[in-house]
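User: Before I run my own analysis I want an independent prediction to cross-check against. Here's the chain; please return only the structure tokens and, at the end, one sentence I can use as a sanity check.
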Amino acid sequence: MSRVRSLCGFAALLFAGTTTGAAAVPHANAQAVGIHKIQHVIVIMQENRSFDSYFGTFPGADGIPMANGVPTVCVPDPTTGQCVAPFHDGSDLNHGGPHGEASAAADIDGGKMDGFIGQALVGRQQACRNPQDPQCTPGGSTPDVMGWHDAREIPNYWAYAQNFVLQDHMFEPNASWSLPAHLFMVSAWSAHCSRPDDPSSCSNALQNPGNPPDFRRGGGPAPDYAWTDLTYLLHQHQVSWAYYVEGGSEPDCEDDAMACAPVRQNAKTPGIWNPLPFFDTVKDDQEQANVTDLSNYYRAAKEGTLPAVAWITPSQPDSEHPPALIGRGQAYVTALINAAMQGPEWNSTAIFLAWDDWGGFYDHVAPPSVDENGYGLRVPGLVISPYAKQGFIDHQTLSFDAYLKLIEDDFLGGQRLDPNTDGRPDPRPDVRENAPQLGDLTQDFDFTQMPRPPLVLPAGGR
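Assistant: Structure tokens:
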């Protein structure tokens, strides 16, 4: 097993480095060796929040520009001609705005970051064709995309930031909606493939890589994701993985719509938050069973049988995807984190918590350009681990590609999703993990410190 080899290599390096005492090991070497103390990586992906909407007023973060506590930025409202500044929003239910490829471009507006209200109004007009749609808010009200929350609404998220690591330059890997974001999360690409099991037939597709809801509605054949994803490399290296899906519902639409009727979701229903069953690699490796119900996560955490790599995706009510309640989503996430903290494998675990896209909510930082796909807008990012630095704000430029990079460095000897080396060449535009802009997640850890105790928080409110 590669995990055994990795741990043996780690032990050998550690022994070699302690011949004259642990203090003799340079810090850089300690970080490189120490990454293998992380034997379980858990990626929790929530939905549709920008960084400024959750942490825009967090002390020390690159948050909403203010002077004397008053925002110095604003966004024009096309219907009133006024410029609306960010404001505190105490509501548990938000509406957000459209968040597809076109909306991302409009919100960013060439770096002006001023399209949010206009796009929300467009989304409202579309939603109000159905008066029962929860996005159909009163015509005279200001869209809530300029609202921000703080410890009054999301105390646990702020507690994690205060006690562990907050990443204030985590960008969605793609400038688009949920499905491409989840594809990037597991494969560093979003594409459309014309021939099954033929990676060479795939071409870049940021907005519509083949939409599972279309297939479920009888609108065409099942999507076939033929390009290479991370599970292919994990399988090659005999590294365990699981993709945990919370049963319930998911939005049955492309996410550039603000909301739509939900459909049932479980581990056996591929969807916009559960794309792995449509990957040829998962089927060819006969690992469909690794996409499994969330109850198995709680069981594994309790019994000490967590896989090396785990992704966790919610159902709509717990997702924070408008109109889902913020408090309920926070309670769901807290329960997930508590389960890992209270299990026997906490001292070898790193939890990465992020939100898949910005959901139409305001953010003031223009994303850097990496390639034709992104980055997209900023989203909140948290690192929770016994080796995470305490109260640290990571200002590095990051995206979900950084999760893949850390997993590859920890478990795969640095192997990348690289068409030139991974044995399944596909025409992806670049190797995202090697982007020069991408930061290094090991900087969020201090592997020389004693493992920090759990921070078990109340998970009520669901």
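Sanity check: The first helix runs from residue 2 to 17.
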